[in-house]
Amino acid sequence: MGGQSIASDGILIDMAKVAWMELNEDKTMLRVGAGARWNAVIAYLNKYDCSVAVMQSNNSFSVGGSISVNCHGWQFGRPPIADTVASFSLMKADGEVLHCSRSENAELFSLVLGGYGLFGVILEARLKVVPNERYRLEQYMVPSTDAIALYEAKVAQGDVAMAYGRMRVDADMFLGEVIINVLRRNEDQVIAHEALKDPDMRVIRRSLFRGSVGSNYGKRLRWWAETVVQPKIRSGEIWRNDLMNEPVSVFENRKDANTDILHEYFVPKDQVGPFIATLRSIIPAQGGNLLNLTVRHVSTDDDTYLRYADQPMFAFVMLFNQKRTKDGEAQMQELTRALIDTAIDLGGRYYLPYRLHATPEQFHRAYPMAETFFERKAHYDPDLLFQNAFYRRYAPKP
Ligand SMILES: Cc1cc2nc3c(=O)[nH]c(=O)nc-3n(C[C@H](O)[C@H](O)[C@H](O)COP(=O)(O)OP(=O)(O)OC[C@H]3O[C@@H](n4cnc5c(N)ncnc54)[C@H](O)[C@@H]3O)c2cc1C
After folding, report:
1. Using a 6 Å CB cutoff, which residues line ligand 1?
2. Would residue 347 be called left, alpha or beta, if left means φ above 0 and alpha means ψ between -120 and 50 degrees?
């Protein structure tokens, strides 16, 4: 979204064909080419009753891209994906291929994970995998002021595998209510292998979602469908792999006149209330058209250099719609900067794979380790072979 994978006058390396996979004998570790996408990984692991340990909420992304941004998902009690990476091989700027892990080339291991491709090309990775399990879905609707307390009570009951909250976004009760979704391991695990299934009600969910873009009525209808209709017709049990196997095409915007823009902010637990209170005033005041807001918990990241979860965080993932005009872009920039300031003032951070609206000052305030991150970049890649728009915007100018 911000040119993290491209640089003007640069050469883009397409890794899509580097997509082989190999599961070890005891089914705990996957060796995988960096260009493989999660949809292929899930299909492969499903044959062995295994699953990805941590990934985004959609399956359309590559292994290399996911570990280079250090993505996270809604897998409960987990740090971002770096925690599941045992090692990887990296082709450096001078062509040398190094094996990197927590004990071998440890500094590069930590710089490359979440390092936006600035230290070399990841060729393959070894990822820890988990069993594919069957989960039971529980849903609770609460006022947003009670959400953290309810979430904590529910996850304390144990056996939680995945959890997230979705906030109400229509103007009638903007961010006033939350549906908390908790997926617990079913005690009655079915051992028999099952083939992957298509996501539930894909066409209806797409119509409801896209129909809500320009209309408060559509947003209310979607909330009603999710909170009243869906719980009545959806089966309460689901396989982990089916749950994680959703492509971005289910929701993607195919219009020319407007586009959907992701934002993500991380705030510590005691700042969730103040953060929501500020969102409720800033977003409507600045005319933000918020389509979706999910909240997930992320545990502390002890692995990456440019880390966003330096402590346990609640992640607020927001999808806005904006016009593809100069004014639409300027408005989104202003809103983004206001939200970044709010998150930083509350001891939080913002996520780096999206638009580059943050000022360099905001970037360095959110990521105080960035200065040494860029010094190490110059050390490992002195001719600055690997560059992208993110690097050019935030690295110190020579
Ligand atoms: C609709 C949508 C939903 C999303 N949901 C989530 C979410 O739930 N959680 C989350 O954490 N993120 C989420 N994201 C962000 C997403 O995780 C990142 O944009 C991710 O980088 C996408 O993977 P990709 O394969 O497209 O990477 P790319 O965009 O191709 O690359 C991302 C970065 O990684 C580098 N890179 C890619 N491959 C390699 C390689 N082999 N070696 C070295 N560097 C490499 C690129 O240079 C670039 O800097 C979402 C994004 C979208 C568009």
Report:
1. 4-5, 15, 34, 56-58, 61-62, 64-66, 68-69, 71-73, 116-117, 121-122, 248, 262, 353, 388
2. left
pLDDT tens-digit readout, 31-90: 999 999 999 999 999 999 999 999 999 999 999 999 999 999 999 999 999 999 999 999
How many whole angstroms from 264 Cα to the centroid of ligand 1?
14
Q: Whose CA is nearest to atom 2 of ligand 1?
A: 248
Query: Ligand 1 atom 30: the closest Cα is on which residue?
Result: 65
CA 213 centroid distance within chain: 22
pTM above 0.85, yes or no: yes
Q: Which of 6, 1, 43 is nearest to 23 (CA)?
A: 43
Measured at the alpha carbon of residue 251, what is the angle toward residues 258 and 253, in degrees to the nearest 5? Answer: 20
* Structural domain boundaries in the chain: 21-131, 134-360, 368-394
Top-level class of domain 21-131: alpha beta
Question: 94-132, pLDDT tens digit by residue?
Answer: 999 999 999 999 999 999 999 999 999 999 999 999 999
What is the topology classification, in CATH, of domain 134-360? Alpha-Beta Plaits (3.30.70)
Could you write out the DSSP letters of every residue in 336-370?
HHHHHHHHHHTT-EE-SSS---S-HHHHHHH-TTH
**Angle at the Cα of 149 from the Cα atoms of 143 and 151, rounded to 5 degrees:** 85
Residue 39 structure tokens: 């949809």
Ligand 1: which residue has its CA nearest to atom 10? 71
CA dihedral 186, 189, 194, 197 (to 10 degrees): 0
| CA gap 210, 226 in Å, rounded | 14
Question: Ligand 1 centroid vs 145 CA: distance in angstroms?
Answer: 32
Q: Tokens 């109400």 correspond to what residue? A: 168
Closest-lying ligand 1 atom to the alpha carbon of residue 63: 25
